[in-house]
Amino acid sequence: MYAFTFERPTTQADAVKLAQGGGKLLAGGQTLLASMKLRLAAPEQLVDLGGVKELAGVRQEGDALVIGAMTRHADVAGNADVKAMIPALAALAEGIGDKQVRAMGTIGGSLANNDPAADYPAAALALGATIVTTEREIAADDYFQGLFATALEEGELIIAVRFPKPQRAAYMKFRQPASLFALIGVFVAQTADGVRVAVTGGGNGVFRHTAMEEALGKSFTTEAAAGVKTDPSELNGDLHGSAEYRAHLVGVMAQRAVAKALG
Known about the structure:
FAD; Enolase-like, domain 1; 2 domains; flavoprotein; single chain; globular; FAD-bd_PCMH_sub2; FAD-bd_PCMH_sub1; Uridine Diphospho-n-acetylenolpyruvylglucosamine Reductase, domain 3
């Protein structure tokens, strides 16, 4: 391992100062540390956010849940408020990686990294979440911008994520056996404003499936989901599955998600 300095601030203000000074933020480290070991990343300074207690925790604000950026996956999965208000989000968190990943990984780290096969981006986009940062509030529709790309500016930290309570919601994914990432994951949410459907694992980043939303908005049934075809030309293929296979999985996972949401 090469030389680098390690900082562990205890306040949000100190973390922002270090980030704006060029420090590389370390949340759960599930992606960054692996990248460093492979020499794909070589930061000169690591800023560990684990000591900033104000960035962790779950609270209810009216009909919304606010989850701190440093809240671990396991804590989201086991939180009573999350289970009561948005059980689909608790179930999603419970299905991330393995036990060790859930014990260390954070919601803020996942959203900041924006892996194209990650689970939390699908939840944020389908639920119409708001990403709260040190500078502003960003709607999920404006936040995700492609392969590992987000609307975050240099030195801008995610503080929390605000999830409005849906009328019903569910997430289903077909796991890649080795990584446990989503080969395809579909999050379906029915809200007072309509149906939102987000797909992860299929392209260069999470995206909304507008055709599926339109069909489910007219009839929130598995039959409606089954009637929507996904264009494989808009998806990626790799050694784990072709674009055509992923397109088929979108329909299957969407039907399963609708069935789960309906109970």
